[in-house]
Amino acid sequence: MRAVTGGAAPVPAPGRGRWVWGLSGLVTVALLAVPCVHLITTAGDPGDAESIMANVPSSSARTVIVTQPVTSVTVQSYGSPVQVTTGSVRHIEVTEMSSYGKGASAGSATVTQSVSGSHLFLADPACSPTGYDCAVSFALTVPPGVTVTAMTDGGPLTVSGVAGANLDSGGGLVRATGIQGPLTVRTEGAPLLIDGLVGALNVDTGNAPLIAEGVDATTVTVSTDGGGARIAFAAAPDSVTVSTDGGAAFLTMPGGPYALAADSDGGPESVGIATDPAASRSLTVSTGGAPLRIEPAPGA
Predict the structure, then answer these.
(1) Looking at residue 101, what is its pLDDT?
(2) Containing domain of residue 73, as a range?
(3) What pLDDT is recorded for position 29?
(4) Domain closes at, from 144, 176, 205
(5) 53: helix, coil or strand?
């Protein structure tokens, strides 16, 4: 293992064919270059095999421990997966998986990072749509109490156990599990799956479905633009607004009564919870012609 030091020394500019981790307080755990080559050939022109080999992507993996104290993280990828999971660790562990194909070489996927105060930033700008033919995915294990901002530009995004999250997948599937604080998600047309949340919820799926279980939030705002929404609350919220604009809405609500404004715009509608226009808890649901159903939580 090698500790990268240098204190206040300037971070070198990213260059072709190398990784950049230009901050103090980092320990490189492992670096593994793995040629991802699997080739079956038959008798024929050797040039054919050479042509195929030239187009076979390669990959490498690297794990880094950030020994500086960090309470918030921002991760940016360009179509590659990002995963952030809370674990029994003292310091953040970052595993970078890079791949590079035709027009790029090993190390072209240059990772940029910085720590400012207690905030860690990770990105792969060399693999942006205007960069090299490469990709970098990130898998982070973080201590409890860390908040996360992540953008994947179409890549799948998984976040578990963090203290709060602001996520934009740009069209990639999002899974958020056991979030211990506020959660804001924009998927831009991809499904969103939530299992366990303690904190405010703000969601826009952009014509994709939302399935949320175990939601314990005081305020909830959901827009699906045509996607269906299924939300099961673990505790009675103070204020809920759900708009599906053509998608079915199915809500399971504990407690009550609620000041309810339900509008299916002619679609099938079923309300089985206690309501009262003067109630302090409010629930507004509109479906734009799609089915609307609101049921009491089991045992409520």
Answers:
(1) 65
(2) 19-37+47-144
(3) 47
(4) 144
(5) helix
3-state SS, residue 135: strand
Distance CA 19, CA 5 (A): 16
Which is nearest to 236 in space by CA: 279, 270, 173, 266? 279
* pLDDT < 50 positions in the chain: 1-25, 28-44, 46, 49-56, 108
Place of tokens 């939302």: 210
Euclidean distance between CA atoms 146 and 91, whole angstroms: 11
pTM: predicted TM-score of the whole model, two decimal places: 0.81
> 293 has which bridge partners?
250, 270
Q: Phi-psi region for residue 244, left (φ > 0), alpha (ψ -120 to 50) or beta?
A: alpha
SS3 state of residue 119? strand
Write the CB contacts of 42 (distance below 8 Å, at least 6 apart in sequence). none
Q: What is the pLDDT at residue 52?
A: 37
Contacts of 139 (CB under 8 A, 6+ apart): 81, 82, 83, 84, 85, 94, 95, 97
**Residue 277, domain member (yes or no):** yes
Q: 230: Cβ–Cβ under 8 A, 6 or more apart, which residues?
A: 209, 210, 211, 212, 249, 250, 251
CB 134 within 8 A of CB 99: yes
The two three-digit tokens of residue 73, written as one number = 């993280």
Give the chain's radius of gyration (CA, Å): 23
Whether the CB-CB separation of 270 and 290 falls below 8 Å is answered with: no
